[in-house]
Amino acid sequence: MIQFTDISKSFDGRMVLEDVSGTFKPGDTNLIIGGSGTGKSVLLKCLIGLVKPDHGNVLYNDRDFWNSDEDTRKQIRREMGVLFQGGALFDSKTVAQNVRFPLEMLTNMSESEKDDRVNFCLSRVGLEQAAGRMPSEISGGMKKRVGIARAIVMNPKYLFCDEPNSGLDPLTSIKIDELIKEITDEYHITTVVITHDMNSVLEIGEKVMFLYKGHKVWEGDNTTITQSKVTELNEFIFANKLLRDMSRQ
Ligand SMILES: Nc1ncnc2c1ncn2[C@@H]1O[C@H](COP(=O)(O)OP(=O)(O)OP(=O)(O)O)[C@@H](O)[C@H]1O
Question: Which domain of life is it from (predicted)?
Fold first, then answer.
């Protein structure tokens, strides 16, 4: 479980996050949504330890990340898998080498144990046939799958996905969303997904947090989101004309 309380952050005197709190539970796919520049990525960075909040706490199963010693922080980091925007694959490594990379860096596993784990993760995301290919030889959707395989290779307790659908067509996006949700259920991971894709919200948004100008202004799920009375949220949802037309029918 991840519990964060009163996270605030400013840059050069400009507040970009103010007193944001929340709880993310194991087995849940938690979406953080909001328009551009509302602080989603800064919040994610405060959670995963890339940006230190000005104040506030982030607890990982009761371990206070920002007030822990370096060893505890290292341990918590090892329990995180991160799917970066764009996949962030190494261009000069094959698909299998990309997935294997965290095992090389962070474990003492034998070569055959690493082989087994890489093969398992690649088959879990449906890419066993692509193991020897280079990132330049595979599609955008496949790159995301490689990113997911690499993010889960260390068997994480916490999975963070920053805009997993960026650059993908709607059908491929849904498949990636479903894969993230399936993996979250299957391995009982606490998953956090940043998105501004309303399709994702409707498909996998069992837990949704909406940020507006650095504040959390709504929290709920995909069954109630379209009935919210929060003006900023409605503007965000119904910026999509199709949804606006559907809501009038
Ligand atoms: N390192 C930084 N230094 C200064 N300002 C920053 C820094 N990182 C983020 N910001 C600012 O913080 C605000 C929130 O940025 P953030 O990247 O969190 O937005 P976002 O909601 O993720 O947007 P998008 O959907 O466009 O990625 C923006 O105004 C951004 O310019």
Answer: Bacteria
